[in-house]
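Listing S7. Sequence submitted for prediction.
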Amino acid sequence: MNEEKKTVESSRTQMNEKMLQKEVSRQRSQASHTHSVNPSPWHGLWALTNRDLRKWYTNPFQLFMSLIQPVIWLGLFGKALDFGAIFTGSAPQLSGAILTSVFGTSSYFSFLAAGMLTFVILFTAMFSGMSIVWDRRFGFLNKVLTTPVARGSIVMAKVLSSVGRSLVQAAIVLVIAVALGMDTSKMTILGVAGSFAAMFLMAIGLSSLFVMLALRSTDWQTQMAIMNLLNLPLLFASNALFPAKFMPEWLQYIVKINPVSYATDAARQLLLGSTGIASLAFDFSFLAGFAVLFSAIGIVMSWRYLTK
């Protein structure tokens, strides 16, 4: 009997060892599979950002259409309002001095061109929210939410893809503006880089704002209504088209809290050498604070509201 018990115990021990080996093998397999998914938040952020950028740069028509409006503003509005021609004949010697006093440069077209750069950023940032609405509507967002990708990465991917698109479009508009006659006498490589740094900060803040507003939306019409509601106030209650110092006093208070004003102001100071509504240090501080605040709010809201 004892021999029989020993045999049974030996068999059980061997079976337990085999089961233990199978369990270890299964866990290793799971670990290997998890490693292949790559749970790094940077991997998920890059994958989602690249997806949105690929949809844009593989569609030249979409890029072309996004450039039409600022180019029309430059080519028609900018050239039509030739304020310098008013003084031709009667007092041409005063033309440059008056225009410089009013616009900070002797050419309204150059003044407007700097404003159009920030207009492009604003226009593109508005559609960052629309992207997340369509992802939710077509079910792609639900698929992403089932993966280990962090909620914050989903929001920041929309923001970064919008920032990338807007900066490329702004660079194209700047080239077109120079070709049409923008003043380049005070333009330097460092100035161009600085102006794009200011627009980068504005793009992060505005894109975060519009993505934040779209986090729970499944209705593209609602998002379009929000965009139309904020679009014109952000543009006209800024110094993008006209100097803020000639606006009514109550409107100047709105201009001073509008991030578009400070990005435009930094671009004009760096590209045209104009005097601004604030110092460059204040412009960049305001834009950096705006970008950090709204991107942080967007990430926090994604933890709460970004659900299946």
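Caption to Listing S7: primary sequence and predicted structure tokens for the chain studied. Confidence is low (pLDDT under 50) at residues 30-35. The radius of gyration is 28 Å.
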